[in-house]
Amino acid sequence: MRVRTSNSIHNAATKYRYLMLFTLPALIFYVVFAVYPLFATFVISLFQTTNGDGSFIGLDNYVYLFTDPTQSGHFWHALLNNLEFFAIHLIVQLPIGLLLAALITSDAVRRLTGFYRTILFIPATLSVVIVGFIWRMIISPLWGIIGFPLLGTEATALPTLSLMSIWQWIGIPMIFLYTALIAIPKDILEAARVDGASGMRTFWAIKFPLITPQFGLITILTFIWTMNGFDLIYSLMGGAPGPNYSTDILGTFFFRTFFGFNNVVGDTDYGAAVATVIFLFILISTAGYFFVLQRRLKPHEL
Amino acid sequence: MKSRIAPVAITVAAVMMALAGCSGGSGDSGGGSDQVTLQFESWRPEDAAIWNSKIIPVFEKDNPGIKVQFAPTKATEYDAALKTRLQGGTAGDLITCRSGALNRENIEAGFIEPLKGFTGLSNFDDLSLSYWASTNGDPYCVPVASVMAAFFYNKDIFTELNLSVPKTNAEYMSVLQAIKSNGKYVPLAFGATPGDAWVLAYMGLYSEGPNYWHGEEGRQGLIDGSKKFTDPEFVQALAALKSWTPFMPDGRASVTYSDATQLFALGKAAIFPSGSWDISAVTGSTGLDVGVFAPPLPKAGDQLYVQSHPDMGIGINAASQHKKEAQVFLNWVASPAFQTIYANALPGFFGMGKEPAKLDNPLAQAWADLKVGAELTPRVEDILSGGNPDFETTIENSLQLMMTTDKSPEAVADETQKGLENWYKPQMK
Amino acid sequence: MSQVSVSRRQATRTAPDESREARRRRRMSPSVFLVHGVLIFFVVMALGPILMTIMNSLKTQQGIFSGPFQLPTATTFSIDGYLRVTQLGDFGTLYFNSATVTIVTTGLTVGLATIAAFAIVEYKIKLAPVLSGFFIIGIMLPVRLGTVSLLQMMSSWNLVNTTLALILVYTGMSLPLGVALMVTYFRSVPQELKDAARIDGAGEVQTLSIVTPMVRPGLGAVAALTMLPIWNDLWFPLILAPGRSTQTVTLGVQQFMGQYDSDWPALLAALTLGTIPLILLFLIFSKQFIKGLSEGYGK
After folding, report:
1. Model pTM?
2. B28 and C62: CB-CB below 8 Å?
3. B85 vs C262: CB contact, 8 Å cut-off?
């Protein structure tokens, strides 16, 4: 029997074989049911269909999207709204998630950690219909506790929706930060306590710096999820979310163009172009983020 | 044992997958050798109980061997879902058809079976059939229901406050003012939230507006380009709508259509501008005594115009495997017998046959009576909707801002007209 | 450095008694109340709306709107909503479909992602980061955009109106995040462990099964994150499996949402019934997740 000392005993060919073998099942599902349909959609965007006959028009749909004043107006407006939605989401959920994670890992909460952790995560299990119904009821000028029409006023509609969304999903950043916090080796914390550091001091000087890498992960995931967001806004505000398109984001813009709205007939090909553009935007932003991050981290990696 | 998670998970998954693959599938249509089940697409889930208990059993009794399964999709998803199902070949045999551009698109794409020569069509006049016809004028769907827009009012509140039913706009305004001064009730159950901005159009502008732009005269004028939305009669209609704002509930920018319905149904509001489809929502278990009055006239003695909009037709999926049976069903739908059952089971949805159905529900009859002496007009859309920017979305957006901010009627008219001129050829001169 | 810490430890040898005192003091201290107070506030914010939903599901339609924040009274209490829901007759089928789709997809995703991630981390050849990146791109993919193509695919394979179609699509959709997450968990597995296993003669698959318990928190995380969007998804059941026998809970609930107004008591009842299994499912997997965490990091 050969003595195996390290991974290097496998030659490249064996490694290649095993890698392919192990990833193939996942790859098949992923490619067939997620990648291919989207690629097919991109192909669709290069066509124009009239009365059931498709004709190849190259990038004309894209030109239309960016040069037609109404369409490009809607697109950029939706993009800006989406970025605002993302920004509010991130800025509010990070501190709160951090606060919650810190609190449930603090010494004051020993046996109840599991209880709090689970309860705070439950809103993430709810369907948007419940979230929308309940919060709309609470802030309704007629039945609820707030007299000012939050969802109907241009300035407050998007922030209100962002807060609703944060309420629902706060469990996720909380869990990410929580797992990072409990991953901190106990001996570091023990040493700090022995040195006489108080709870707050320990937190800010020791725990916080060790969990900051999680912020990057949360940021990028929040970015992707808010850029792909749709359900809550659609179910509460419809397909052309107002007031005055102030809650229109990329997801609703796409839905409107692809599937139509009111009596407007949807345009599959043009909608496919919109979808491709949105996807590329997310891809480039995320790639750019990772690129910058890699450069920052490289010198620190040891 | 702990390390076996992955293999166990996969085994369980595989077993359940095998079970899953066996479920569903071909079990839905067909079945026995003689039994045919027709799938019936619709956008009204709330009608399911009525179709299943009052309407379909009548058909099935006379037609053993044909079963009809009412399979509705939520209204806001219907158009998108139907289109996807038609393209994917999985749509039902019977299709509830919208009137207008959306349906025309499905017709042009060949998804709907033409009804040329269908004997049942003789029960309908050409105008009714035209709403569900192709651009050539060939019929594709049997007209089933039209709806109207007007004003529900709470009779008890009117009696309590000594009010009489208004006929002119001046009377209407003074009634509203009287209710507001009294302070006990909300004058108008009418909201202006963006998600329900269509209410401002369908039951607001397109209800009271025709009195100002003279119904078809105005609508056809917009369609052929002889009238502009900035013409005085349209601006007056907009101004009349805006004058409702002081009488709407507080925080109206967040009041939804559902809120408005509940407000009226709970007896807290006096007047509810809505459509005939809400008859069941405001009567029955609410215990209210409800009446209806027509849109107020600008001046006494003017001609009355009332909105009557073709809402629903039923057609056959061109890819259906059971076209013969579907035609049997459609034949029945085109008959006066069906019209009577339908109009009484769903008050507020008026049949469009040449023979008007006899209505048992007094409120429904009161609505139908509004048509007497009035000129009817459908909503200002159809040919005008669609386009870039979309007419309907543009005007609804502007209306919502007009009713909640200080946007003026002239500005709304301007925006709408500019939007039309951007794409609608007859308006581009 | 170590000398200093040793002397410090000697200096505080009496510390154990003190720290017990300090601990007791800490338990009673105002900061404890503050911590719990803040947490309870958030718990109320999280649970309040849910309790409101349940409460309102037990009222009549008028009852809901005449007093949404009040408990059901003698006049407003009604279980009609629940009755109408059960009268549908096939609520059990809805549950079964939702459960089947969610559990099978989750199982498949966890299983396949684990295997793939193990390989990506273990076999350090150039192809590995490429595959990894390929999966990561998938996290951003808005799968809804491929609906028409998916429907045509399913229809040509005769899989429309089957839960299998949903399972296939959801698995494809969930694998990217699953793989990306498992990769991060596998990266924290020490190389020596795997090498030791190999030295003892383990093959690749055996090595994988030895290493898997170490990434159990990852399994729990992937399971939890996978099942949530699937149970609540409306779009794909609507398009791919709208038939009566294959409807999921989320789709079935829609029948209470009318064109103009909804049957609120029935809708809320259906939503309440529909949410409970998901919360239960989630609770089961979150326990695993945490158990694994404390075991994994206790070392």
Report:
1. 0.86
2. no
3. no
